[in-house]
Write a structure and sequence with these properties.
Elements (H helix, E strand, L loop, with lengths): L3 H6 L3 H7 L4 H10 L6 H10 L2 E6 L4 H17 L3 E5 L4 H4 L13 E5 L5 E5 L4 H12 L9 H18 L1 H16 L2
Parallel strand pairs: 1-2
Antiparallel strand pairs: 1-3, 3-4
Length: 184
């Protein structure tokens, strides 16, 4: 599938961030405080690959709040152009990247070559973050319980704070992205 059309349709990260209403401050906090490791060989290899990235995202998504600033920092180091597409406005593309064949989970990072062919896909989260989320959900009461909504909100507030402040989580996302891109 040629993805150049979708790439051209996307907005720059700056335009996307300026349009954000829900998670802008947390995303910018991560961006301002995350410094990629001095992986000179890795960044040089990425730069030589001449790839670009399409990001499927939405402002309300906590995983996007966490993962996008780390991707942007990698892209800056390797001079990789990034374009953002809102998931809900681009369901035709999103539905080609469903998680487990059924969920419109985001963000999805689609890495493409100069001819518009996909060379890698990453998202919506690293394996360690997925396990963290699964464990947290396992500790929630049953959905029928009176306190389910309250406990669910508490869990997501705690996760958002963890994503925003826990530099080990940031490093895990970086390592996961690096591992995926080293396979290209």
């Amino acid at each position: 599938m040629n993805l150049n059309h979708w790439y051209e349709k996307g907005m720059t990260p700056d335009t996307y961030i300026e349009s954000m209403e829900k998670n802008k401050q947390n995303l910018l906090h991560i961006y301002d405080h995350f410094t990629p490791p001095a992986d000179t060989k890795f960044f040089q290899k990425l730069a030589e690959m001449n790839i670009r990235v399409i990001v499927l995202t939405e402002d309300w998504c906590g995983d996007a709040m966490l993962n996008i600033p780390i991707l942007i920092r990698i892209a800056e180091q390797a001079n990789i152009p990034v374009k953002m597409l809102l998931r809900d406005d681009n369901l035709e593309l999103m539905d080609q990247y469903l998680t487990n064949g059924k969920a419109r989970s985001i963000p999805i990072f689609i890495f493409i070559d100069e001819t518009g062919n996909e060379v890698a896909k990453w998202g919506p989260r690293s394996k360690a973050i997925q396990q963290y989320l699964d464990d947290a959900r396992d500790n929630l009461p049953p959905k029928e319980a009176d306190d389910y909504e309250e406990k669910s909100k508490e869990m997501y507030l705690f996760m958002t704070k963890s994503f925003r402040d826990n530099k080990d989580i940031w490093q895990d996302v970086y390592t996961s992205l690096k591992h995926k891109l080293e396979q290209v």
